[in-house]
Amino acid sequence: MGPASLLVVDDDPDNFDVIDALLADRGYELNYADSGQQAIDSLDTFQPDLLLLDVMMPGLSGIEVCRAVRASARWRALPIIMVTALDSKLSLANCLAAGADDFISKPLNGLELQARIQAMLRLKHQYDALGNLLQQRESMVHMIVHDLRNPLTNLILGIQILQRSHYDPPLPTEKLGRLLHAGQQIQHLVDDMLVVSKQEHGKIRLDYQEVDLLALVATVLDDYEAIASQKQLTLVREWEDRPLVAKIDPPIFQRIISNLLSNAIKFSPTGGKVEVAIVTEDKNKITICFIDQGPGIKDELKLKIFEPYEVGTIMPNIAQIGLGLAFCKMMSEAHGGAITVQDNQPKGAILSLTLPQHPPVPIGWVPHGQWGEAAVDNSKEGGHRITKVNSDQGPVGLE
Question: Which pLDDT score, from 0 to 100, does residue 168 have?
Fold first, then answer.
């Protein structure tokens, strides 16, 4: 976060010099407007975090400027401190009634000015944080509503078929499998919603345990064999058959693997294959690669796919609205790792989940950028080489 930007509005340039001197050691970015109209016109240019507004000015007075700012949807939350030589209670009341947050009397006192500015900026930061939180919550509700629609439709349709039909012999296994998968999709969405809700209320605490990572990944693949078979897909496991212990939160990490595998299956063409490779070239890092033969991901979408909104049509008739990849990114970073995207050759995409084998255990969730270098660079120059171990053919290199 850069220095706070202050817009000082005063028709007397000498007063700006006084404020500049009083705040010289505070590191603020100071901008100046010599009239009320100029202040209003320059808001979008200067993008101030706080307005220091003189009350008595020719043309538009400070009170008129304050009312105009408060009438703007974009700037109505901008903190405004009125600078006034007036000391009557009525004048001060008029300032507050116009929408000012605070006022300070001339002649200015440096300590008082700094304290009032700091107090207003602190409130603005809290307001901005709350606004971001509310926006995330609104986005989450929007995503959940859309993501629940398709599996719920499948579930309801299946139940209606059961109500109208009498199967003898018993229900086909394939139909029961589809109903079960739809129910599991809903369960995963609800679980993801609960995890995101925890983020809203503070910091996510991960329950780190030492886990056999190969066994966990294999279990997820076993669970998706039936789903893959519906598209005649082959799930290929590419890793060395040896113990691989990692410190992770097992339920959270299992959902990360499940979401990434489900994504690879969703975008793979019928009759193709999805490969899951586990790489441990770096003794301190583990990389799990999900390799599909789908349409691939355009360069301009490689970052957007981790956002919780529709990002465009990667494959016709397949929705890309969801918590899935956004959840994976957030939780991989909570583990001290990262997710990157590469092109598969000749066709498809590789989503690589990289995490430290023994991550730093935080008190709560903090952004990955504060934990050091755990991410894998996606560029060719700084990229990584995936070595897949095949028991029949030996090592196979994948750039």
Answer: 66
Give residue 197's pLDDT: 60
Residue 3 DSSP code:
P
Are the C-beta atoms of 333 and 325 separated by less than 8 Å?
no
Could you check whether the bond before residue 107 is cis, i.e. omega within 30 degrees of 0?
yes
> Which residues 6+ apart lie within 8 Å of 38 measured at CB?
9
Residues forming a β-bridge with 288: 278, 353
Query: In this predicted structure, what is the pLDDT of residue 362?
Result: 45
pLDDT greater than 80 at residue 79: yes
Q: Cα(276)–Cα(396) distance, rounded to whole angstroms?
A: 14
Average pLDDT over residues 125-131: 87
- Helix, coil or strand: residue 229: helix
pLDDT in tens, 229-246: 888 999 999 998 888 888
Could you give the C-alpha distances from 122 to 79, 116, 125, 219, 353, in angstroms and in order?
10, 10, 5, 49, 37
Q: What is the CA radius of gyration of the chain?
A: 29
The identity of residue 155, as a single letter, is L
Biggest CA pair distance of the chain: 94
Q: Is the pLDDT of residue 373 over 60?
A: no
| Token pair recorded at residue 399 | 């750039």
Rounded to 5 degrees, φ, ψ at 393 are: -105, -10
pTM over cut 0.85: no
Task: State the alpha helices, DSSP H only, in 202-266.
Answer: 213-230, 250-266
Q: How far is C-alpha 228 from the chain's CA centre?
A: 29
φ/ψ of residue 126, rounded to 5? -65, -40
Q: Quick check: bond before 308 cis, omega within 30?
A: no
pLDDT bracket for residue 70 (50, 70, 90): very high
**CA 142 – CA 79 distance, rounded (Å):** 31
Q: Are 139 and 308 in contact (CB under 8 A)?
A: yes
Identify the helix (H) or strand (E) that includes residue 274.
strand 273-279
Query: CA 141, CA 93: separation in Å to the nearest integer?
Result: 41
Per-residue model confidence (pLDDT) at position 333: 85
